[in-house]
Automatic annotation (TrEMBL):
Pfam families associated with the record: Aldedh
GO molecular function, one term: aldehyde dehydrogenase [NAD(P)+] activity
UniProt keywords, alphabetically: Oxidoreductase
EC number: 1.2.1.5
Name of protein: Aldehyde dehydrogenase PuuC
Annotated family: Belongs to the aldehyde dehydrogenase family.
Active-site residue numbers: E264
InterPro entries: Ald_DH/histidinol_DH, Ald_DH_C, Ald_DH_CS_CYS, Ald_DH_CS_GLU, Ald_DH_N, Aldehyde_DH_dom
Span of domain Aldehyde dehydrogenase: 29-489
């Protein structure tokens, strides 16, 4: 990956994107399109099909037909594995093209995007391809005249609604296990980050996935996403995104066919720094990266910094220094540490949170404003606010932007109490040299993932899922497979 290659790719025009249904590109049934604005400069990049409910229904019908005739689920596991491995290879072979297209669409800094997007997506698809012929049924310990068998079956049609922050990585977390287990999938990418995911879906067909097994419909969440949620023919709905949408998806399920709904929602993850942390300078650098990468648009972002009072001022100064060293700028430059915010709406929302924090007694230590406005793009300086009380908006509500709130604490008990005082429970971290305290923090802080003396970076071998209003049903690892299978009992009298 070098700058010249990236610059050549960014100069290429992006053709309009259509739905992918039954293996073919299909326009919206009413020919509608959505403008795609690049967050890099606010300019029109291309258009996507603005799907209708009828488009979604036809994608679901195609996925259902593909499932029922067994063109994928009925193939021997070795054949399915071959296709998925080929798909992973194609994603890798087209990694830079996919990453640059994605960055032009969503604004993530390229250095991070290349690893976190095609790199991670290929790895995930490969992981589940390799796992698919290692998922066995079971024989129950029954009376001798009975054979009790537990079959693991694909569920049928999976609907996957994907957010805009890491479309390929998160898309692969759903597509990998869903397809590996033999399901058909209908994808709904996010309005402001559809392009690279649509391209990745096309590559699946090139790898030999039969038409109809993976369909993808672009458009507005409240139109095509709602149609997917309300469908009587989707068996499982998997989602990553905001709590408000997650709540709606549960309602859609209740109002339609009671489809299974798995939600990976937001967080307000506490990064807890004790005075006995092994290396405070390292903790400060990682704390800054843990919130500001991808402009804070990371579900597990460490957005609450809880610092032991005795080191508060000194530690905040270190984090501010590390933050100010992170260059905000053109996300397609390799030396940029923080790229663009995904959309103007999101940027305005972020700035609103800063204003609210100030009105609630917070103090901005660094950042706090829009920058590089002359580019036409959506950029925000990474922002640190101190004096955030545990009940302040900045401590309670997910910003999903580059805003870090700092709260001091006196004791371990107080740190745990503050850490657990939100409706969320996605991720967290504790920095300490005390082994017992480290383990106590893992047990006591209510989250799906707890880091010790690091932040982020958990790979595909371990689950990622939340507790509380951060969601249910983990992505990643072999555990994710459970979402995409049914257990079926065969009770046989011998
Ligand atoms: P954000 O507010 O950060 O954009 P959302 O939860 O709205 O997060 O978006 C995540 C995904 O959910 C996107 O693909 C979006 O299109 C989709 N979505 C938004 N609203 C709905 C809805 N009412 N029904 C189904 N999907 C939706």
């Amino acid at each position: 990956m070098d700058q010249t290659h990236i610059d050549a790719l960014r100069a290429q025009p992006v053709p309009p994107f259509l739905h992918l249904i039954d293996g073919k590109p299909v326009p919206a049934s009413d020919s509608g399109t959505l403008d795609v604005l690049s967050p890099i400069d606010g300019q029109l990049l291309t258009t996507t099909a603005n799907g209708t409910a009828a488009d979604m229904d036809s994608a679901i019908a195609s996925a259902r037909a593909a499932f029922e005739d067994g063109r994928w689920a009925g193939q021997p596991p070795a054949a399915r594995k071959k296709v998925l491995l080929k798909w992973a290879d194609l994603i890798e072979a087209n990694a830079l093209e996919l990453a640059v297209l994605g960055v032009r669409d969503n604004g993530t800094e390229i250095g991070m995007a290349i690893k976190a997007e095609p790199g991670s997506a290929a790895g995930t698809i490969r992981y589940y391809a390799e796992a698919l012929d290692k998922v066995y049924g079971e024989i129950a310990p029954t009376a001798p005249d009975i054979l009790g068998m537990i079959h693991k079956e694909p569920v049928g049609v999976v609907g996957a609604i994907i957010p805009w922050n890491f479309p390929l990585m998160i898309g692969a977390w759903k597509l990998g296990p869903a397809l590996a287990m033999g399901n058909s999938v209908v994808l709904k990418p996010a309005e402001t980050a559809s392009l690279s995911l649509m391209r990745m879906a096309q590559l699946a067909l090139e790898a030999g996935l039969p038409p109809g097994v993976l369909n993808a419909v672009t458009g507005e969440g409240k139109v095509v996403g709602e149609a997917m949620g309300l469908s009587m023919d989707v068996d499982v709905l998997v989602f990553t995104g905001s709590g408000g949408t997650g709540r709606r998806l549960m309602e859609y399920s209740a109002r339609s066919n009671m489809k299974r709904v798995y939600l990976e929602l937001g967080g307000k993850s506490p990064n807890i720094v004790f005075a006995d942390a092994p290396d405070l300078a390292e903790a400060a650098k990682v704390a800054a990266g843990g919130i500001f990468r991808n402009s804070g648009q990371v579900c597990v972002a460490g957005s609450r910094l809880l610092v032991e009072a005795s080191i508060h001022d000194e530690f905040v100064a270190e984090v501010a220094k590390a933050t100010e060293a992170m260059r905000v700028g053109d996300p397609l430059r390799l030396d940029t540490a923080i790229g663009a915010v995904n959309s103007e709406t999101q940027l305005r929302q972020n700035l609103g949170f800063v204003d609210m924090a100030l009105s609630e007694g917070g103090r901005v230590v660094t950042g706090g404003s829009r920058v590089l406005e002359e580019t036409g793009g959506y950029y925000m300086a990474p922002t640190i606010v101190t004096g955030v009380t545990p009940d302040a908006s900045l401590a309670q509500k997910e910003v999903f932007g580059p805003v870090l709130g700092v709260t001091p604490f006196q004791t371990e008990e107080e740190a745990v109490r503050i850490a657990n005082s939100t409706v969320y429970g996605l991720a967290g971290a504790a920095w300490t040299s005390n082994l017992s305290r480290a383990h106590r923090m893992v047990r006591k802080v209510r989250t799906g993932v707890m880091h010790i003396n690091t932040y982020g970076g958990a790979d595909g071998t371990v689950p990622l899922g939340g507790v509380g209003q951060s969601g249910n049903g983990a992505d990643k690892s072999l555990h994710a497979i459970e979402k995409y299978i049914n257990l079926k009992t065969a009770w046989i009298k011998l």
